[in-house]
C-alpha cells in the first residue's frame, strides 16, 4: 500500500471566478486503483476512533476522494510507542457520505463569508464577558489592537 502510488501529491482544483481553488495534499495516491492512502501516527491505536472524530478524518477523506474522483480512502495508523503496531482502516461508504456532507456544508459557509468579507465565527468575544480576563484587562486595552500587520502576504 505504501510502496506504490504518487507520494505527497498536491491537487489544486480551480473553481468559479471569485472563489478560491480547492487544494489538498494526499499522502499516497494510487491513481490506477482510484485509491487514496493517508498515513497517520497515534500514541495509542485504541484511541483511533477518537482521533478520527477529533480531526474530522471522514470530512478530509471524502474531500480527497471527491477531488481525485477516487473510489476509496484508507487510513494507515502507526503507533508511535512500542510495539509500534499498525492499524489499517478503510473508510466506509456511510463515513464518506457523512464526510462529503460536512465538507460541502463547510465550503458553502466559507464561500458565503468570503463573498461578504464577514466571518461571524471569528468575531472576537467581548473580554468583559470573560470572567477570567475581567481583572486583568484595563478598559482602554480592550479597545486597542494587540498586533498591527501590514495588508498582504506574510513571508515565513
What attributes characterize this protein structure?
single chain, 156 residues, alpha+beta, Lambda Exonuclease, Chain A, 5-stranded mixed β-sheet, 5 strands, 31% helix, globular
In terms of topology, how is this protein built?
Blueprint: E1 6-13, E2 22-30, E3 35-42, H1 48-54, H2 57-68, E4 72-79, E5 86-90, H3 93-116, H4 139-143
Parallel strand pairs: 3-4
Antiparallel strand pairs: 1-2, 2-3, 4-5
Task: Tell me briefly what this model is.
The protein is α+β, with helices and mostly antiparallel strands. It is 31% helix and 24% strand. It has one domain (6-143): Lambda Exonuclease, Chain A, CATH 3.90.320.10.
Structural overview:
There is one protein chain. With 156 residues, the protein is α+β, with helices and mostly antiparallel strands. It has a single domain, classed as Lambda Exonuclease, Chain A (Alpha-Beta Complex). Helix content is 31%, strand content 24%. It contains four helices and five strands; from the N terminus they run E-E-E-H-H-E-E-H-H. The protein has a five-stranded mixed beta sheet. Strand 4 and strand 5 form a beta hairpin. The protein is globular and about 50 Å long.
Amino acid at each position: 500500500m505504501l510502496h506504490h502510488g504518487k507520494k505527497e501529491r498536491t491537487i489544486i482544483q480551480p473553481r468559479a471566478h471569485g472563489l478560491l481553488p480547492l487544494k489538498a495534499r494526499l499522502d499516497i495516491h494510487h491513481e490506477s486503483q482510484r485509491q487514496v492512502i493517508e498515513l497517520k501516527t497515534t500514541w495509542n491505536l485504541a484511541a483511533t476512533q477518537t482521533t478520527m472524530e477529533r480531526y474530522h478524518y471522514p470530512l478530509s477523506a471524502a474531500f480527497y476522494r471527491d477531488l481525485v474522483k477516487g473510489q476509496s480512502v484508507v487510513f494507515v495508523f502507526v503507533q508511535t510507542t512500542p510495539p509500534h503496531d499498525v492499524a489499517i482502516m478503510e473508510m466506509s461508504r456511510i463515513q464518506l457520505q457523512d464526510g462529503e456532507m460536512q465538507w460541502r456544508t463547510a465550503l458553502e459557509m466559507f464561500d458565503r463569508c468570503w463573498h461578504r468579507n464577514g466571518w461571524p465565527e471569528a468575531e472576537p468575544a467581548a473580554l468583559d464577558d470573560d470572567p477570567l480576563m475581567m481583572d486583568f484587562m484595563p478598559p482602554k486595552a480592550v479597545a486597542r489592537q494587540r498586533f498591527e500587520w501590514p495588508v498582504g502576504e506574510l513571508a515565513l
